[in-house]
Structures are given as structure tokens and as C-alpha cells.
């Protein structure tokens, strides 16, 4: 399902933290948001999963304004892996993942056999089978992240919105997660700090800087040494990955602030 973000402005505490963002993800496309801390990535994603309201502009899902959908319909169509965490203390892992099925259940109807199967499949997909009965609060940061991803998968959404999903994951689980997302080929909006992961996963990237989209296109066109210096303030060479051929950003970890004044 296609998603369009039209001229989106979000105002928080009297300040426009996102201004006139314009982008889309076509059916089945994986579109990445990258940008420095505080550039507006989470704000944009929060507006898509209806945690925030636009001040101006709109988000369209298959041509329909997101705000015209009811809560259950929106939850069936869009699943989010947000950065903020709610009160999750008392759930088991299985209960947490099963929450992904609630938008499909009639009040008091409980779980169907199909729901149970989808929950088990989602747990297996993220490698958490065998951990169903553990308390969610007892999981490590990376295990929690995987359980929340399983909840999003169990929701069987048409659009996945993932805010920094590789946070807390060790390198093997990062790579596994990217492989899972590639295999699913669902319309996906994803923010990533790891630019090499973004370059290998995303069909197209949008670079955010101080609340505005400043560059858009396929990773190879967008992630140039000039852009990395200008937007991220780092020195880097962009080369071909020797194993995959993807763009590989080799950062100069010895360089200084790249001549850019640090952000407040
Ligand atoms: N509830 C809020 N009230 C006021 N300002 C906010 C609020 N939430 C976020 N902001 C500000 O909006 C700007 C964009 O924040 P956002 O979280 O979208 O950035 P980000 O690109 O996701 O950053 P990071 O990479 O650090 O996660 C920041 O300056 C942030 O301080």
C-alpha cells in the first residue's frame, strides 16, 4: 500500500520541528530516513503512526487521509516500532506480541487459532521462540526490540513504520533484522542512524536536516562525501562494498568536527 507525505509541518512546543516534508513510499518500497540527532526523523514517523498531528499538510494511505481512518482500521494498516516505550512491565513476551492481533479481534472475542499461529510465527521470525513465557521487562534491550518487532509483524500491516529498529541489537541481530525486512518487502518507512545499513536496505533515502528534507534519492546518489560533510559534519569516503557492491561509507574516525559548528 502506498503512503504519501504531503507538505508536512509539525509544530511542537510552539516550534516547527518538521517543515514542509514531502515524500512517498510506493507499494512494497523500503524508504529510509537518515539525518543527525534532532533533525526530525522520529517526528515524521510519529505523525505517520498517528502519535502526533500535523500542523499543516497530510499523510495519505492509498490516497486516503490518515486522519479519516478509525483507530482500529489505522492499526490494521500501519504497525509501528516506536522509540518511546509505554507501560509494558507486566506482560509476558507472548502477551506483548499478541497485542498485535487486537485490532482484528471483536470485543471480548479472544484469540482465534489463526491469531495464535500468527503470534507463534512472528516469535519464531525474530528468534524468540522458547522465550514466550518470560516477562517482557526481564528481556535485554535487544530482545525487547525483537519482541516489539514481532508484535508489529503479528499485526500484519500494509505499512511498517520502524524508528531505529536496530537500536540495541548486536551486529548479527542487526543483519538478521535487515534480512527479515528484505524478505517481507512490505511498504516500509524506517529511520536508521547506521548509514551503511540504510544504504544496503533502502530503495530510496531522504536526508533530514533541521526539520527539512534536504536530499532524496537512491542511496548511491544521496550518500556522497559532500553530503556527509555538509549534513553530518563528518569526513568519509564512499566506496563499493567488496562483498555486496552496495555503497560503503568509510568514516574517518580520526578527523575532527569537519569544520562544522556543533549543534546546540
Ligand atoms: N515533545 C516535544 N516537545 C518539544 N520539542 C520536541 C518534542 N519532541 C521532539 N522535539 C524536538 O524536535 C526536534 C526533532 O526531534 P526528533 O526526535 O524528531 O529528531 P530525530 O531526528 O528523530 O533525532 P534522534 O536522531 O536524536 O532520534 C528536536 O529538536 C527535538 O528536541
Structural summary, described in words:
The radius of gyration is 19 Å and the shape is globular. The protein is of the alpha/beta class and 264 residues long. It has helices spanning 41-48, 71-77, 93-98, 113-125, 141-154, 171-184, 195-201, 219-222, 225-232, and strands at residues 3-12, 15-25, 30-34, 56-61, 64-65, 78-81, 159-163, 187-191, 204-209, 212-217, 236-240, 247-251. It has nine helices and twelve strands. It has a six-stranded mixed sheet with strand order 6-7-8-3-9-10, with helices on both faces. Strands 2-1-4-5 form a four-stranded antiparallel sheet, with helices on one face. The protein has a two-stranded antiparallel ribbon with strand order 11-12. The model has no long low-confidence stretch (mean pLDDT 91). It has one domain: P-loop containing nucleotide triphosphate hydrolases (Rossmann fold, 3-Layer(aba) Sandwich), CATH 3.40.50. It starts with a strand and ends in a 13-residue tail after the last strand. The chain is 31% helix and 27% strand. Strand 1 and strand 2 form a beta hairpin. Residues 12-13, 17, 35, 37-43 line the site of adenosine-5'-triphosphate.
Could you tell me which ligands this complex binds, including any ions or cofactors? adenosine-5'-triphosphate
At CATH level 3, the topology is Rossmann fold
SSE pattern: EEEHEEHEHHHEHEHEEHHEE
**Strands, total number:** 12
Q: List the domain count as a whole number.
A: 1
CATH class: Alpha Beta
Strand order of the largest sheet: 6-7-8-3-9-10
Q: In terms of per-residue confidence, which ranges show pLDDT below 50 for 5 or more consecutive residues?
A: none
Oligomer: single chain
Please state the CA-atom Rg, rounded to the nearest Å.
19 Å
Can you give the helix content as a percent range?
Answer: 25-40%
SS strand fraction: 25-35%
Distance between the termini: 39 Å
In the CATH hierarchy, what is the architecture at level 2?
3-Layer(aba) Sandwich
GO molecular function: ATP binding
Keywords: ATP-binding, Nucleotide-binding
Protein name: ABC transporter ATP-binding protein
Domain ABC transporter: 3-235
Amino acid at each position: 500500500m502506498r503512503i504519501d507525505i504531503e507538505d508536512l509541518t509539525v509544530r511542537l512546543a510552539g516550534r516547527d520541528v518538521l517543515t514542509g516534508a514531502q515524500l512517498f513510499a510506493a507499494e512494497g518500497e523500503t524508504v529510509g530516513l537518515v539525518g543527525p540527532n534532532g533533525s526530525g526523523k522520529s517526528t515524521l514517523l510519529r505523525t505517520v503512526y498517528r502519535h502526533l498531528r500535523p500542523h499543516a499538510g497530510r499523510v495519505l494511505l492509498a490516497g486516503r487521509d490518515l486522519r479519516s481512518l478509525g483507530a482500529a482500521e489505522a492499526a490494521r494498516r500501519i504497525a509501528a516500532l516506536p522509540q518511546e516505550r509505554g507501560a509494558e512491565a507486566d506482560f509476558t513476551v507472548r502477551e506483548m506480541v499478541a497485542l498485535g492481533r487486537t485490532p482484528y479481534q471483536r470485543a471480548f472475542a479472544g484469540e482465534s487459532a489463526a491469531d495464535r499461529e500468527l503470534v507463534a510465527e512472528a516469535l519464531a521470525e525474530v528468534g524468540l521462540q522458547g522465550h514466550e513465557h518470560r516477562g517482557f521487562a526481564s528481556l535485554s534491550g535487544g530482545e525487547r526490540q525483537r519482541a516489539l518487532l514481532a508484535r508489529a509483524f503479528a499485526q500484519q500491516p500494509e505499512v511498517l513504520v520502524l524508528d531505529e529498529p536496530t537500536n540495541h541489537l548486536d551486529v548479527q541481530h542487526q543483519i538478521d533484522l535487515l534480512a527479515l525486512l528484505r524478505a517481507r518487502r512490505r511498504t516500509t518507512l524506517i529511520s536508521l542512524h547506521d548509514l551503511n545499513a540504510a544504504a544496503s536496505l533502502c530503495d530510496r533515502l531522504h536526508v533530514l536536516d533541521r526539520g527539512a528534507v534536504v536530499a532524496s534519492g537512491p542511496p548511491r546518489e544521496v550518500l556522497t562525501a559532500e553530503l556527509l560533510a555538509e549534513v553530518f559534519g563528518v569526513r568519509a569516503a564512499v566506496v563499493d562494498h567488496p562483498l555486496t557492491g552496495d555503497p560503503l561509507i568509510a568514516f574517518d574516525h580520526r578527523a575532527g568536527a569537519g569544520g562544522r559548528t556543533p549543534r546546540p
